Amino acid sequence: MRLVVFDGAARAPAYFFNEKIMCGLGRDISETGVLHPEGRRRAMQAMERFAALASSFDVQSLEAVATAAVRDATDGSAFCDEVKAKTGIEIRVIAGQDEARYAAQGVLLGRPSAVGLVSDIGGASMELAVLDEGAVGMCLTSPLAPLRLADVKGDVDKYIRKTMKGLRDQIGGDYDTLHLVGGSYRAIAKIDMARRNYPLEVLHEYTLSVQQMTETLDWIDGAQDADLSTMSSSSAVRLALVPMAARVLRQLVDVFAPEVISVSSYGLREGMLYEQMPSELRMRDPLIEACRFMERSSARFAGFGDHLAAWVSPLLPNEPQMQRLVLAAGLLHDVSWRSDPSSRAEECFDNAMRGNLGGLQHRGRVMLAMALLHRYRKNGKLEKYKTLKPLLAEDEQIAAQVIGQAMRLGASLAGGDAAVLRKATLHQNATHLELRLKPSVAVYGGEIVETRLHELAASMGREGIVTVL
Length: 469
Hints:
The protein has about 475 residues and is α/β, with parallel strands linked by helices. The chain has helices spanning about 30, 35-55, 70, 75-85, 95-110, 145-150, 155-170, 185-195, 210-220, 225-230, 235-255, 270-275, 280, 285-300, 305-310, 320-330, 345-355, 360-375, 395-415, 420, 445-460, and strands spanning about 1-5, 15-20, 65, 90-95, 115-120, 125-130, 135-140, 175-180, 205-210, 260-265, 425-430, 430-435, 465-469.
């Protein structure tokens, strides 16, 4: 059972409140046909609490859905009736195909043009959905989930493989990317991160190869409960589901043979939110929308970030992803201005590393964080960054430094006045980086501006000069 309250940017909302309780409603359902009694009691208690919280938060709209356990239990309708009687909340029981569609739409919330195969695993079902350039294709549901598989008699792995091949026959096609959705998959990803000493803790957009995943699945197969708990911060109830979920994932990877595996922190709930969005809003960039919201909320000069990014962008390769990072950095360059100057650089860095920024893979996240670090700290030194540097190639590290130092120069030059930037331009050749100022803004130059120009030029392997035209 989970309550999620969204707030903030329409296209990239933040989690105003997020609480879950592992009730085990579907435990033993294959044998009994009804919701687990203790799970039902805990679920009802959770619903009453969630209803009270939603009321205190004064949410504008409230939607409740139930998935496999309630869908398949003979007393599922009675449970929904009881919830409505006690809380006033009407639960909508969704079909397995709808559950798959919502999970796929959750992936699209973070990556609007995603392609590949989405797999969402819960306690009582596992769903598959096809994504093709932002459109959801075929959706399937199956009983390949830990609570259901615990009741299978005989060779469980043989049953999983046979069922998985049946799904493969239905869905067809080849899928380079496998998008994983669901708490048990995320717990497996956490274990993989721990085993590899991965330097970043953010699960969203964590990618790994099939070989890396196979090695982790092998480790889980031979692990004890205590081993799992030392490798993951997930709850004991969640970790109890991991070994069976790992067996499902092994067959999923083997049967569908993807090239890359990507973990999504978004899922069914985000997919429900995505479905309510108008099509024009869906196609906006979630990263840029989140950064714009942060600028409007926290920056001194809202709107200046666009102009600063445009001023910096000619210094970087004219590639969509690079220019997108420049724009994100420009929008975020001033949102921590209220912080103590001694900690401002680190706070900017942490905002990028830990912030709720969708549509940003890990290398891009580190580049953005490094750019913001250089915006406020000329040497770009930060102890926690050392472990993250290996995620970036040398040219990416240099690009992030150039973005940050160019923003530092532009912000010092213009303050927050876009009109000044329009009369000051940067020009580069093989040996020099020239700042050209029109006479009307020559007074904005000075020692600080020259110093920061020379720092930026040095990073680019050039000599800085200032010219008043």
